[in-house]
Structures are given as C-alpha cells and as structure tokens.
# Entry
Amino acid sequence: GQQVMQIPQYQHVQEGEDFTTYCNSSTTLSNIQWYKQRPGGHPVFLIQLVKSGEVKKQKRLTFQFGEAKKNSSLHITATQTTDVGTYFCAGYNDYKLSFGAGTTVTVRA
Amino acid sequence: NAGVTQTPKFRILKIGQSMTLQCTQDMNHNYMYWYRQDPGMGLKLIYYSVGAGITDKGEVPNGYNVSRSTTEDFPLRLELAAPSQTSVYFCASSLGPHGGQPQHFGDGTRLSIL
# Structure
C-alpha cells in the first residue's frame, strides 16, 4: 500500500538558521498537503501542491513538489521560536490520503 | 466561528467500558473523518463519511463504529475499550474529498484506557 515517509523525525535548530524537511512516497501522488501541529494542538493546514515541480512560498516557508510527484520538501529560513511544532506531509493518490509520521522541530534560542 | 468541535477533551476509561466521542462542524462540509494519533506514528484514518447516511472504513476501523445522521455530526463509538485504543483522537472535515481539499481539525480527545 501507499506509504509516506518523512525525514528527519526530529530537527533541532538554532534560532536564525535554515533547515529542510523531506517527504517521500512509495507511489506517485496526485497532490500533497502539508500541515503544522503545535505542541498539544491539532494539525492545521498549510498548503497543497498539485503540479509536478511546483514551488510555493509562505513568508519564510518554501514548499516544493518533486518532478516525479513522489517527493516533497519544506524549507524554513531564519527559523523562529514560532516555528516550533510537528510538520506533517500527507500524500493523496487513489482516493487515499496518507500522512507521514511528521518532523518535530525544536528551536534553540 | 466554531469550526470543528470535539467533546470531551480528556477521558479515562476502564478496560471493557464503552463511550462515544462527539464531533460536530458548522461549516456545512459533506466530508468528515476520524483519525487517531499515536506518538511518532502520524495520523491513521479510522472511519470517514462523504455525507449524511454514508460512512466507510479507513485504515484502522477495528473496535470502532460511526454513524452520520446529519451533515453536522459524526460521533465515534468505542465498544469494549482496550489499552491499545489509548490515543489522541481527531475529528476533521473538508469541503470536498480528502486529498482534494484542506482538512479542518478539531482540538482532539485525549483518551486513556486503564
């Protein structure tokens, strides 16, 4: 069955630094969604990518969908303490939305 | 604007007890979902509904039941609670089919089975 894997599982970042988290699917995806969950909170939708090679930006966050539509990345520049939380990707194909296990981000001030 | 509301927020059950987790949404979304979230495991789909009167199984339906009598409400029933059902449960809704539209999540129900 469809599997979505995220790496790394944990990301410890110094405030002000950049980092990237990756999402890889075992199958070609129709689209991919990204969610953020703050500690103790619920997942909140960030963005959806549909087209091969698509790149979308939200302020300091840059999302990319791979050319083969089997992988995606989230790059955060100049990390802030407000970026703390777990970032999930969710890949959609064949009427199924599969969530990755998430990348949990902590920030050192 | 309430969005998706879940009750209760916390609950402790004894093994073998039953309970219903409530979920209601005020966005007139046809699609509703129940997920469980275990530490480090992401979200697993339990059941989903594409409209009033229509429900279907997700990845991990065993030990759960659902009903959808109205567009707004989508309760999740646990029968004969087991320790393996200790988890955080999230209800979500979307305007269109999951994967095609953003999902809006409730605050979750933290359930412990002892």
In short: The mean pLDDT of chain A is 95. The two ends of chain A are 41 Å apart (CA to CA).
